[in-house]
Amino acid sequence: MIKGSVFNQFMLMYIFNLLLVSINAFPLEDDASLKNIYSLSTEDTMMRVGIKNNAPALFQMNSTGNKWNWASRPREISLMNHVYIRGERKSIKWEFKDALLEEKNGTKLALNFKAAHPPLELSSIWKAYPGPGPIEHEILIRNLSTEEIQIPIQKTIDFQLLLPIRHQIECWWVEKGNGTPSLIGTHKEIIYDGYYFYKPSTPYCLAPGADMIPWITIQDRKALHGFYMGIESSGQVCINISANGTPLILDVKSGIDDTYVEYRSRIPPQGSYETPACFIGCFKGDVDDGANRLHRFVETRLRPPVHDARYPLLVNNSWGSGMAVDDTLARKMIDDAAALGIEIFHLDAGWYKGVGEWRPHPDKFPKGLVPIVDYAHQKGMLFGLWVGWAQGGNPPNGMSKLAVSNPDMKNWFPRDLPEQWRPEDFTGETVCLACDQAKSWCLEELRRIVKEYKIDLLEHDQRVAVEVCPRSNHRHLDNPADISHHATNGYYEIYDRLRKEFPRLIFENCVNGGRMVDFGVAKRVHYICFTDTYNPLSNRRGFYDASFPLPPSMCEAYVAHHPGPTLDTFKAMLRSGMMGWCAIMCDTSSWTMEQKAAAKRQFEIYKTWIRPLINKGNLYHIEKRPDGVRWDGMQYYDPQTGKGIVFAFRATTSRKDHIYKLKGLLTTEEYQIRYEDGTSTSSLQTGDHLMNYGLFVRLEEPETSELIYIEKR
Ligand SMILES: [Zn+2]
Fold it and tell me: How much distance in Å is there from the Cα of 209 to the middle of ligand 1?
């Protein structure tokens, strides 16, 4: 290979890929009905997909360099076998038409099928990108007829997978951290004959443990490898798994959730319908190893691009002072935050006239927001703004407001509200974004807000996608999964447009703290608040759970004021929110000089040592999930830079000493170990010692912490 020639390297890769495709595009000899087999691969995941019984099927799935083929008993994906025309059920029969293969920045394969009466097309679309991570799949259905049709459920993933005999296989999944993270959060279940798994993910998780973040990992503990999958949708979706027989056969399905209510959706004449995209990826090692590879995929392929080299940025959020925020208080907070080294001032709820009327409150901001935004910019900070833009209120009529009583807007909301209905301080009635006029209004209003107020960061809060809406002139039919499917698509359209128009704008997803956490919203925002309870323990629990499926840079903790009795407990409060995206939500003016100095030091460490690890390092869950009693901790290590860190937390336990077994180091290398607070003396230790014997930490007082730096010699 010619050294340094990117073009030639690319050409060689391209030719190699073409060869791969032609080599693998042969019929398997043992089954005459099998043909058109294609290979797709990422750095980690290898698949062969093709046609079986006039349907797409997975013939091979393994991690690169590992021989175990999870898909050695292929079964075709079940394609919908009927549609409805004018209410009448019509059986349809799919026939394989052709396959289109595109080799451009990875591999995109479309397996195309057609049906005759009515004329329909269905494409099973597979995408594999260079680099780490999974392979994506989605199904596109086109209505070629001149009439509207209705379709039943079409799952995106529908595989039969084979498990090795006499291996302990586990299924891992995590809850959304909404409200308050529950006592369990991260689940690990052994798969046995008769095992059944069903868990939904919805646009608005209603109770702790009710929803999963739509991600699972299947881990072979004996052979140390496995696979994970996820759903790129914020609608009502689910993953189903059942295991039966000897050897165990896994039946794996994911996509729209039709468990409790029959699913139907409409496709207009000449229109199309896409199932939620799902991904599936293989890994070597344990659950953390798989998650670290997935994190890199989410960062490069799903999350919107990041234009600020400092990402994840350090935020001071005005909610530390609640709804009381005004011009004077905001300036004081900006002064304080700038002195502490914080990078964004974020104006939370309380700045506007009322819900649905997203203009500065004249009593609080008599000169508007722009002078405050300019002030933050002068101090070298970015400016973020909270907008509950999908919430309607009941202000007097006028098109500059989203109002439930406006006769032109009434129908945009799922229900008619009485004249005397009033919104709360920051929650109103959620508009249905499957209504085109409502969607256009919200987009136009957001454009105005971003431009007029010159903001750098937009946070959305409260529900954005409805699940109940009986209106018949919106895009959906009257079933919850279809309502949420179209409402989330409406939200995605708004954010995709905004991002095109304001490429440097940073997006935050709050939705009442961790209620909408999935890979669909991860494609639209830069970070996601994972819980609505902001004490140190909840922040550590929420981070522990969310950082399996999501890159840690996207996992946002709000740090509320729980300083405890000493400076060490104050530092533990900050550090509990500093493992991912960190938003300080305290009235920092109430901090003592001593606390301010300690905070400034922590923020300096965050920016110089921790942040590069959050972005590029591997994350390891080196302890059990925090329970508020025993010691807990997390570890980062970046093999590229040879740097790492351990976040050590002693909860209420009386045990002063703890040993952490580290991960991801090289046994033969030596590492310099330093303690930020000087609780133990620095030392030089081998990777073998740190991983097999462990790292010693001693903390004299409960509910305190230590940061331990790791650096390869
Ligand atoms: Zn609707």
Answer: 27
Q: How far is the CA of 481 from the centre of ligand 1 (A)?
A: 12
Q: What is the pTM of this model?
A: 0.94
**CB 244 within 8 Å of CB 193:** yes
Give ∠ CA 587-588-589 in degrees, rounded to 5. 90
CA distance 453 to 446: 10
Q: Ligand 1 being an ion, which residues bring their Cβ within 5 A of it?
A: 432, 434, 469, 471, 474
Ligand 1 centre to CA of 327 (Å) is 38
| Mean pLDDT, residues 570-592 | 96
**Beta bridge partners of residue 85, listed in sequence order:** 88
Q: Residue 265 Cα, ligand 1 centroid: separation in angstroms?
A: 13
Q: How far apart are CA 126 and CA 563, in angstroms?
A: 50
Query: Taking residues 305-325, what's their average pLDDT?
Result: 92
Residues 6+ apart with CB under 8 A from 213: 173, 174, 175, 176, 201, 517, 518, 545, 546, 549, 550
Q: How far is the CA of 414 from the centre of ligand 1 (A)?
A: 6
Do the beta carbons of residue 462 and residue 390 sit within 8 Å? yes
Q: How far is the CA of 429 from the centre of ligand 1 (A)?
A: 13
What is the distance in A from the centroid of ligand 1 to the CA of 482? 10
Average pLDDT of the chain, as a whole number: 94
pLDDT more than 70, % of the chain: 95
- What separation in Å is there between the alpha carbon of 256 and the centre of ligand 1? 18
Span 411-434, mean pLDDT?
96
Q: Looking at the chain, which residues constitute the CATH 2.60.40.1180 domain(s)?
A: 632-712
- CA 353 to ligand 1 centroid distance, Å: 27
CA–centroid distance, residue 438 to ligand 1 (Å): 10
Q: 432 CA distance to ligand 1 centroid (A)?
A: 5
Ligand 1 centroid to residue 613 C-alpha, Å: 43
pLDDT of residue 375: 98
Banded model confidence at residue 35, pLDDT cuts 50, 70, 90: low
What does the alpha-carbon distance between residue 492 and residue 520 come to, in Å, rounded to a whole number?
Answer: 8
- The strand ranges marked E within 621-676 are 631-638, 643-650, 657-660, 670-675
SS3 632: strand
Tell me if 195 sits within 8 A of 243, measured CB to CB: yes
The span from the CA of 214 to the CA of 712, in Å, is 36
Distance 632 CA to ligand 1 centre (A): 45
pLDDT tens for each residue of 458-470 = 999 999 999 999 9
How many angstroms does the Cα of residue 503 sit away from the middle of ligand 1? 29
Distance 227 CA to ligand 1 centre (A): 37
Coil vs helix vs strand at 484:
helix
d(CA 516, CA 524): 12
Question: Does 529 score more than 50 pLDDT?
Answer: yes
pLDDT band per the 50, 70, 90 thresholds, residue 478: very high
Q: Ligand 1: distance of its center to the CA of 384 in Å?
A: 30
Q: Which CATH architecture has domain 632-712?
A: Sandwich (2.60)
Q: Which backbone phi and psi does 315 adopt, to 5 degrees?
A: -115, 145
Sign of CA dihedral 579, 585, 588, 592: negative
Q: Is the pLDDT of residue 8 over 60?
A: no
